[in-house]
Structures are given as C-alpha cells and as structure tokens.
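Notes from hallway chat w/ T.B., transcribed later so I don't forget. T.B. wanted the structure written out for a chain they're using in a teaching module, and asked if we could keep both sequence and structure tokens in one place. Agreed to drop them here.
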Amino acid sequence: MLYLFFVVFLLLIIGLLSYKLYQYSLIILNLEDSIEDCLDQLNERYQSIGKILQQEIFFDSVEVRQVIADIKQSHTSILEIANKLTNISKVKSEAKKEDS
C-alpha cells in the first residue's frame, strides 16, 4: 500500500513538472520569435541608415554634422546589438553540433 502511494505521488509530481516544462518551453519559443522579429526590424533599419550615410552632405552646419555623427553611432549600435543577439544563437547551435 505504501508503494502504491509513492508511485501515485511521484506520478503527480511528474505531471506537474511536465506541465510547468511545457509552459516554460512556450515562453522560450515566444521569446525566440520576438527576437527574430526584432532582428528583422534592426536589419531593415541598418540597411536604411547605411543608404543615408552613403549620401553626400551639402549643408555644412554643426547641427547637421552632429546629427550625422549620431546616425553613425546608431548605425554601429544596431550592428553590435544584432551581432550580440545572433552570437547567442550561434553558441547554442555550436553546442548542439558538438553533441551530435
């Protein structure tokens, strides 16, 4: 009788842990989708800013030069953020390849 009680108890714990694991896996999948969407948006902004930075400046003002410098810094920041986010997935994929 005692063994039956422990088996039922352990099955309940396994069921609860499986449910929580399912919930956390859904959270991780949703987070991954959100990160991919953000990376797509960052890539679009990066390309757009890159096109703007390639154009010549015809107005020689301190304010305009400051805005261009800010755009260049934003351009670099977008690239760094995208690289950091993709490096996280590369580390995970490299670990999977090593396990295989």
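Follow-up for T.B.: The chain has a mean pLDDT of 79. Might be a good example for the class.
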